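Listing 4. Sequential folding, example run.
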Amino acid sequence: MLTLQQAAAVQATFAHELITGTMVHEAEFSIRQQQLRMTIRPELALVISLDRYPDLAVNRPAGWRQEIGQELLVVLHQALAVPFVWCWVSEGVIVVLLELLDETKNRQQPFADQKARQIASQIVQHADEKRISVSIGMGGFYENPLYMQHSYEEAQMALKDRFFQGNQLILPIRTKRDRDSGSRRNSSIPSKNRADVIASVRIGDEHATLEALHRLLQDRTMVDQQDVESFQSEVVEVITAMSRTVLELGADASTILAENARFIQDLYQTIRYDTFLKKVERYSIHLVRQVEQLGMKKYSPVIRSAITYLKEHLGEKIGLKEVAQNCCLSVYHFSHLFQRETGYSFLEYVHRMKLQKAVIYLETTDLSIKEIAFELGFEDANYFSRLFKKQMNMSPREYRTARLC
């Protein structure tokens, strides 16, 4: 006789093999049923997500996560009058496989949708009575239990429609045609927003990168509120461009490419908007810090501090005296130390950093030369152009034309 814990583990194994499609490697369904002593024949998947789980879990002890999980299982047993199995698929997300048990044998999709919606409503209601907020994605109905992998994937896709929406939602499966007809293919990310992010990554400015990233994400959220896939794809394009920038600056290619692939895969599987944003922010910080390590590990702490201060105020009028005071050094001492370690005078270094950003704006936006100069803190566009030509051996206009060709 199995204990309650053993029985829970067995049914979780059964559910996991069905939603991953790995049962085919174990045995035929009926044989696997006998091996695990399961009688249920699942026909439909529900994916149940605890609303705002990342926020709720912050600063909570590990025991809280176990308690909320156990409370949700109690809700399921109270709400469901049909056979079911379950397994956790990620923190705060559980999949439930149902056998609908229709006495009329009317086991078609319209009936299944109606019955599943009723069941989902009961789960949401029972959870709410325990002050637990959940949203539920519904998969399609399949008579063959080996198709539970498809139903699970459909339920996940349905739950994506909650991405920008509220809490306690029940989201039915939508066909590809429905998704396409409801989709608004909007204009891509404005080049200025993208350039702000990439330019800030290029100089290793964590603060500016996050500010630019937040502006970009807010803009896309407003535009793509009915098109989750477009939003995710466009953000992934920016992440890829950021990674490419880090590679161009000399980071280890095998490490960056592997990390990037894993991150993008994880990002596409994220069903919560708030979690998505936090993941993007954390990974962006990780990329920027790699740039910082590449460019600043050879400098002393005081010069690293000075360069960080410079990056944070690059668009402002900032002088040698201000940075020296920030580093608690005399202007004379700081100036000599800065040039000895970096190989450039203070002003030359500031100009080089600004021109690194200028290159990004010239390559990826249609901003005028005057607008780029103003963006970088130059009051005189002609002065900016002279500096650029001295550094790059061509004017900003010539550089842009050459890159376009």
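-- end of first protein; second protein begins --
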Amino acid sequence: MFRPRKPTPQIRSLRSLSNWLLSIALTLGLTAVAVAIAGPAAVGQEESSGATPKPDLTLEQYQEILPEFLTSFPEDREAIISFEMDVDVLPSTDITIHERITYNTGTRDVRRGIIRDIPKVDLLDNGQQRIYGVSLISVRRDGAEVPYTVEDSGTTLSLRIGDEQRTIQGVHEFEITYSVANGLDLLQPSDLDSDVPPQVSAGDIELYWDFVGDEWTFPVYESRVSIRGPAPALAARCYPDPQYALGCTVDLNGGPEGATTMTAETVGWFELDGYLTGAIAWAPDAFTQLPAPLIMDDPQATQSRQAVRNAPLAGIGTAAALLLPVLVAVALRRRSRGVVSPASPVRYEPPKGLRPAEVQAGLKGTLDSRGFAATLADLAARGHVRLRAEDGGLLSRETLTVTRTGHAAEDLATWESDVLNAILAGRDVAVLGEENPALASAVVRVRTQLSDAARTSGRFNPDGHRPDKPFRLTALIGLLGLVASIALVIMGGETVPTSILVFVTPISIGLIVGGLLGAVITPRRQTKVSANFIAETEGFRRFLDSASAAARRDFAQRAGIHEDALFATYLPYAIVLDLEDTWIDSFRDVDPERLLTYGVSATTWSGVRTLTQHMSSSMASGASMRSSGSGFSSGGRGGGGGGGGGGSSF
């Protein structure tokens, strides 16, 4: 159309800021020129009476001089010195474009070539897309062949011109030749307004083209376009970037072979971008056929409209994916439980004959660092070792000193002896907190032994997780669907399949949440033996978790044991049941120094609490296996074993 193409609101806002800065620069430039030319008279200094005063320059004269300063460019700056295009419009309505890009690499960065993005799709005001058939013909640099790659995204033909292994410096000329189909328009009466030249009428054929785009990352100093048609042009106009251009001239049919030329210069010494758009019209009888623009609906807009229509159904599917697993889990909760655990009144002793680690193995099917820490506390309470926590300060980790008492070991189970021997390693005193391969091996053996014993005895039902397996599978399906959604976004290219994502993504999230909630609601299936064990343990837990110190004293008196003995004996069980803080808080009135008899070396209850924390952390540190590899340190740090990625340039 014979009207300038308007930039987007985002570009307009950025250019307004740049224009403000440019205005300041131009004002300063005009002032500098005035001072340089007008001399002292311009700043009010008096000349001698015999001197002839210099004439003052008008603002128009300053503006005529200013372009000489603006269009000169520093050689160290990356820029396109000139962008020349030869455009041949054929009678068949096809277009052949030959670009000559004179490019300066500058000296700031290492360069290997340029990237030329040629649009194949134009977004129209009504939301539709106009498709152009762009076909590459040839690519050259400095008159010779040059390596290049072509990437066609569907909306853009991207040319990467240059050798990745060779750098270039200075000024080089890149030549690109390509053809364009569906690039002409047949003017309609609705396209004509008062701005259209009188030589142009409805039915004429028009080329309305962005000859130089505004997406270059470095400035374009000069643009020149030569357009040859099948007949002399009726009219032509060019529209340079009003923010950065110094003007645009049109020579209608006055160029070589009757070509119409358009020339524009930009304020190139700023790193600003500009564009050059032109419109030119011919009579229709110069063509063998009328143009037929290829206009289609925007695929992304179509997807979005379909997504809006699908949203209600997707909402129903998401609600079903979220609620159905939960409702099923609630309905099957009683059946999933298997044997119902009997009532669990308060018990004043742990399950008969079981050590703290065995209780944890019966509840969880395995042992963790708390289970082994409870074993240490149990050995101390029974008089086999003494425990003392050591704070390493800010620069060292805390450690736990374990001292053998010489107490007879006849009442130790085989697995207890295995752990104790791995810690002491034949010595009377050992420090936990550093890597101990022998202890790590013993931990693996004991964990396996007690886990197998819990399953064999029936205290832990290995099939207890089966009722919640369907719900975990549901969550897994949802996770796979979510991964598929992300893959669709990544692989979708220019068009994101939102009509599909509106179903897949929320329903997948619903399946994940619903499946996990169903798994949480579903209890573990218990056998008669495991249900009785859980009931006994729960009754003992209620005793340890009671806030009544008076009840504990009453139990200690009836059982004929001291309160400090009661505390030390049951502390290991409180550790595996995660109740050590509650158990410690209930014995604040007992002198902690009396616990030394039971292998606990602490003078305050705060020290007792610290000791229990040190036991878990020290066991975890001592039982950890050393990592393989070097890394020039013990086990190394970080990932190791390969290089790290990053960086790109052209």
